[in-house]
């Protein structure tokens, strides 16, 4: 069984090389480390380049948008690395509002331009304020233009409604599925996941966040990802190996710069 963790972040507290080794022991063979700023993306690049089967994405997270000067030049250098396979994590977050919406939109547009220039997918973060769909509306507007120009993307850690999933799916979106699938009160997420196009489902941890049951509340690590695969296999009544093959194949179709 070979599983691809398509979205994680480097731990500041644990030995990341050891986490990769332990993940490999349980079948999590491929990992994609996401950057949220230029400095964070550089750390992701350096880590990926010293670990076989680890890749990286570079971008400006919406929480970091206030500190982004709008220049994508420094980010273009990441495309020179053979381990670079996506622009991200980028998007809109009005739930926390660490950056103003205008700054987030500006950063998103710049990063989508970078993805088009580099011919790589975008990894999208989309979280709305409580009781609102504002982040989804903004992301959808800009991703519609991006997709119309040939851009591809994944909405990571998707927790929206079925209606929003279908709207993004019409644009060709892939969807990241992680630990929330196992949460006791996540029936809404399980319902949406069952309606997702199977050829566009990816597995992810978003480590160190959103650890699956029974590790909820602890730092998440890639070696926990098989628990998500098993839950999805249970939901679809198929062997877990089928889920691993499906989602890993989907990841390689999206992240075309990666060769097996």
General description of the model:
- The protein has 260 residues and is an alpha/beta fold.
- The protein contains nine helices and eight strands.
- Strands 1-2-3-4-5-6-7-8 form an eight-stranded parallel sheet.
- Helix 3 links the parallel strand 3 and strand 4.
- Helix 8 crosses helix 9.
- It is globular and about 45 Å long.
- The model has no long low-confidence stretch (mean pLDDT 97).
| Sequence of secondary-structure elements | EHEHEHEHEHEHEHEHH
Adjacency order of strands in the biggest sheet: 1-2-3-4-5-6-7-8
Q: Unreliable stretches, pLDDT < 50, 5 or more residues? A: none
Strand count:
8
Which structural class matches the secondary elements?
A: alpha/beta
User: C-alpha Rg, in Å?
Assistant: 17 Å
Percentage beta strand: 15-25%
Instruction: Note the overall shape.
Output: globular
Whole-number average pLDDT? Answer: 97
Distance between the termini: 15 Å
Helix proportion: 25-40%
Key terms:
260 residues, alpha/beta, 9 helices, 8 strands, globular
Q: Summed up, what is this model?
A:
Helices cover 40% and strands 17% of the residues.
Set down the secondary structure blueprint.
Elements: E1 3-8, H1 16-25, E2 28-34, H2 38-48, E3 54-58, H3 73-76, E4 84-93, H4 101-118, E5 122-127, H5 134-148, E6 153-155, H6 162-170, E7 174-177, H7 187-195, E8 201-203, H8 225-236, H9 240-254
Parallel strand pairs: 1-2, 2-3, 3-4, 4-5, 5-6, 6-7, 7-8
């Amino acid at each position: 069984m070979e599983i691809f963790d398509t979205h994680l972040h480097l731990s500041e507290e644990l030995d990341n090389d050891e986490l990769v080794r332990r993940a490999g022991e349980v079948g999590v063979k491929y990992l994609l480390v996401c950057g949220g700023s230029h400095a964070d993306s550089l750390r992701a690049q350096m880590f990926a380049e010293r670990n076989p089967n680890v890749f990286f994405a570079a971008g400006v997270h919406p929480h970091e948008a206030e500190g982004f000067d709008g220049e994508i030049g420094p980010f273009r250098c990441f495309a020179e690395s053979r381990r670079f396979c996506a622009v991200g994590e980028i998007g809109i977050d009005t739930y926390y509002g660490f950056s103003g919406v205008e700054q987030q939109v500006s950063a998103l547009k710049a990063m989508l331009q970078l993805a088009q220039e580099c011919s790589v997918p975008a990894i999208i973060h989309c979280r709305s304020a409580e009781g609102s769909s504002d982040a989804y509306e903004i992301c959808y507007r800009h991703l519609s233009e991006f997709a119309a120009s040939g851009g591809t993307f994944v909405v990571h850690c998707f927790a929206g409604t079925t209606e929003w999933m279908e709207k993004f799916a019409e644009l060709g979106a892939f969807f990241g599925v992680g630990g929330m699938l196992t949460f006791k009160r996540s029936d809404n997420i399980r319902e949406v996941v069952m309606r997702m196009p199977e050829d566009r489902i990816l597995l992810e941890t978003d480590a160190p966040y959103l650890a699956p049951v029974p590790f909820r509340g602890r730092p998440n690590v890639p070696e926990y990802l098989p628990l998500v695969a098993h839950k999805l296999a249970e939901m679809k009544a198929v062997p877990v190996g089928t889920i691993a093959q499906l989602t890993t194949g989907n990841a390689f179709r999206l992240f075309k710069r990666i060769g097996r």
